[in-house]
Amino acid sequence: MALVVINIFKGINSQLRICSLLLVACSFFFACKTVKKVEQIQEAITKKDTAQVVVIKETPVVDSAAIVADIMSKVAKNKIDFTTFNAKIKVDYEGAEKNDNYTVYLSMKKDSVIIIRVKGSFLGISAEGLQLKINKDSLILVRKVGEKYVMNRSISYLQEVTEIPFDFATLQDMLIGNPVFMSNNLISYKNSNTQLLVVMVGELFKHLINLDKTDNRVLYSKLYDVDVQRNRTCDITFSNYQPLGNYLFAANRKISMAEKSKLDISLDFKEFTLNDPLKYNFDPPKNYKRK
Predict the structure, then answer these.
(1) What is the pLDDT of residues 22-51, one digit of tens each?
(2) Which CATH number fits the domain that encloses residue 152?
């Protein structure tokens, strides 16, 4: 994640960089680390679990297609479908040199718009009065305190600073807490009495995911770059699941990222509603300076 921070904080106005990082932080995906052997990953995370590990590629008798279909159906069952989503999120940030906390107000309309408002400070810079509006092809930043201005950027800016080729739908899934970067290329799994641990490999990322077998909730996710030249890792823990319409929603998320230094972010969703009118919105003031 340090690489993401560096990319965000060079070459463009700091206020836009702040909002871009907040957007990615409130999602739950940031970065990854050099891939270790699957067996080492499983041993480190579930070393006390004596359940047998089945390596699909090395066990021809296992119906791997059926296993993949069953696991993916479990994940799909809990994917939150929505028309609109509103949330108030308390964010705690702990980096190598700076700790901060702030409040993010979020409104989304599926396949249409993402609205973010920020209250507090971030990395020692006041984020009061910052608003960010994102649609499928562009983003608009408005600063309403101090030097008032409006900034316009292409949606590709977020892809550039995060070095992740996500689309608008993936971004919305990340914000609401749906699993992303899933793959049908399942290379191993571990089935215990209470949890299902799965390792899958996609084009960009190796993804280790832990599911609660009772209701198929995602408990833990670990992401690595497939590219062994990268040296990043991201661990995400989901907890405090609460009802949200017909779904379960992880109201607490702990994110730990490491590259050359470590970054920890805690997301505490204080308020969240599904399919209500958008609570937060804005139109760029016409009399503000453009940047």
Answers:
(1) 555 444 333 333 333 334 434 444 444 444
(2) 2.50.20.10
User: Which residues span the domain enclosing 15?
Assistant: 2-280
Beta bridge partners of 119: 103
Q: Is 137 helix (H, G, I), strand (E, B) or coil?
A: coil
Amino acid code (one letter) for 137: D
**286 domain-assigned:** no
User: Which residue in the block uniquely carries the two structure tokens 């399919």?
Assistant: 275
The token pair at 231 is 């040296």
* Cα gap 130→118, rounded to integer Å: 6
Domain count, the chain: 1
Q: How confident is residue 248, by pLDDT bands cut at 50, 70 and 90?
A: very high
Does the pLDDT of residue 244 top 90, yes or no? yes
Selected residue with higher pLDDT from 177 and 161: 177
Distance (Å, whole) CA 279 – CA 271: 11
In this structure, is residue 291 part of a structural domain?
Answer: no
Sign of CA dihedral 79, 162, 160, 227: negative
In a domain, 7, yes or no: yes
Provide the total of helices (H) and of strands (E) in the chain, helices listed first.
Answer: 6, 16
